[in-house]
Inverse folding.
């Protein structure tokens, strides 16, 4: 299994929503693209990807060289594991089946997320809840992360991208723009 998408900006969402639609304009820009099929019913701000609370995945062939998009037993197993960890699966939706989609929203609506409410998610792996945080100002100062900080899964993905595709990204455990570009490069290479 490989993750193909996580956080998605409002502009990226507008581009996806504009596929297969005539005259779709977001923030003054025309995102219509009739050369591609519709892939989402979610406008910008109406996808949990826009808040970093969703991922899309696909199955990888046994040799690791091909993406498999056929919904089969392996696909459903990944969905079942995700659901056991508290994710909702797009394959369970009634009006628009989105088989690659998993999200964990903490029960919040798009309106609540758009207003800045942060979900309190409980890990079903170790039962912990991250402490509540409060932003005291609009300016966020980022310190250099400690060497052992960052998500271990992201670090593993970054190491794999560097070895398979010579992307030369930092193995820091943070899913930032360089990691995203490297993932896209890897996805397009296969």
């Amino acid at each position: 299994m490989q993750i193909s998408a996580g956080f998605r900006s409002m502009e990226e969402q507008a581009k996806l929503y504009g596929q297969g639609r005539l005259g779709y304009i977001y923030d003054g820009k025309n995102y219509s693209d009739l050369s591609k099929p519709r892939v989402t019913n979610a406008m910008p701000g109406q996808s949990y990807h826009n808040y970093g609370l969703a991922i899309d995945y696909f199955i990888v062939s046994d040799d690791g060289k091909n993406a498999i998009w056929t919904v089969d037993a392996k696909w459903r197993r990944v969905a079942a594991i995700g659901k056991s960890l508290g994710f909702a699966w797009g394959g369970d939706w009634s009006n628009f089946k989105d088989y690659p989609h998993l999200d964990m929203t903490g029960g919040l609506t798009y309106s609540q997320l758009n207003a800045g409410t942060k979900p309190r998610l409980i890990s079903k792996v170790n039962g912990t809840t991250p402490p509540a945080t409060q932003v005291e100002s609009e300016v966020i100062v980022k310190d250099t992360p400690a060497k052992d900080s960052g998500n271990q899964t992201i670090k593993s993905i970054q190491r794999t991208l560097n070895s398979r595709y010579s992307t030369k990204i930092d193995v820091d455990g943070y899913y930032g723009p360089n990691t995203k570009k490297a993932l896209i490069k890897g996805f397009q290479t296969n």
In short: Confidence is low (pLDDT under 50) at residues 133-145. The radius of gyration is 18 Å. Residues 87 and 175 are 20 Å apart (CA to CA). The beta strands are 2-5, 25-26, 29-30, 54-60, 67-68, 88-89, 101-103.
